[in-house]
Amino acid sequence: MPTTARAAAASGSVPEVQHLPPQWEPTEVRPSLPLGVAVLAVLIALLGLVVLVSGLLFLLNEYLGTAIPSQLLIVHQVDVIGAAILVLLGAVLVGVATALWNQEAWALYTTVVVLFLGLGYLFFTSTITVIFLVFLLLFVYLLAVRHHFF
Q1: Which end of the chain is less crowded, N or C, counting CB atoms within 10 A of the terminal residue's CB?
Q2: Whole-number Å distance between alpha carbons of 130 and 55
């Protein structure tokens, strides 16, 4: 212990600090949004909106009758429960797209899992087509840019 500190401790007084460094405040550092993730988020949002609107139009046509003409329906071969599932799925897709845009890790891993399940389905049903290759490229790309998410 330095002599001045010993002397201050022995006398019972605490030495006065003349200068304190500025208080540290954390800053939010967000990595930039990769272009591929932005495009993917927009495409997922558009798909989600189409699914959401198709379910809503069917439900409105079912319950309001002539208020929504049947020519506007996107899906025709679905029942009320299927249309409600479409509305829910569309809302979930819009939510995942928003979270991807905001670079949230749970959205990245949700998208990676869905792509992996799609790849498995396409592989085991022997339908290796362009869609399989697109899913594979998106899967690898999202794993490559995962450090941009937090």
Answers
A1: N
A2: 28
